[in-house]
Amino acid sequence: MVEKPIYKKFVDEFVKQTKALTVGDPLDEKTKVGALVSEAHMNKILSYVDLAKEEGGEIVTGGKKVEMKGRCENGYFVEPTIITGLDQNCRTNQEEIFGPVVTIMPFEDEEKAIEYANNTPYGLSATIWTENLTRAHRVAHQIKSGIIWINCWLFRDLRTPFGGIKQSGVGREGGWEALKFFTEAKNICIKLK
What we know:
about 190 residues, alpha/beta, two-stranded parallel sheet, about 15% strand
């Protein structure tokens, strides 16, 4: 979600940066996007691209399978994909795609952004980008998510808990929470005469 006054400028720059990403062999240092785990996963992602079109979305860039040569010719690669023009409640925006696909949606004000962010059955992570730290704290406290990054992404101290809420995740891992997550408590009761 991008605030309306900067939406067009953001989309234009995001498309430019996305088109510059190299899809390819993960052993090549120039590669920024590698293969997917399986053909089924690739087909799932491509089916969501088709669904986005059916739902009225515009594929601004990407959305196709990438054919590789050489060592990775049997791999499953998809172009980084940007989709605009979708409603917040459509399946493409409500279901987990888990691939190199992003939808970009404008929002009017802070309240609408929070409403959109919370109107999903998932809540693994959220990212807030802003120059206003007070706003960042206010919005972060209202978003229903297991972890919220502010002006960063995937930056984490492994001593802190990580995990989602709602239909995301199965508990917490990291820090002391990992002990609870990866162990099972057992009660053994013995009566001696």
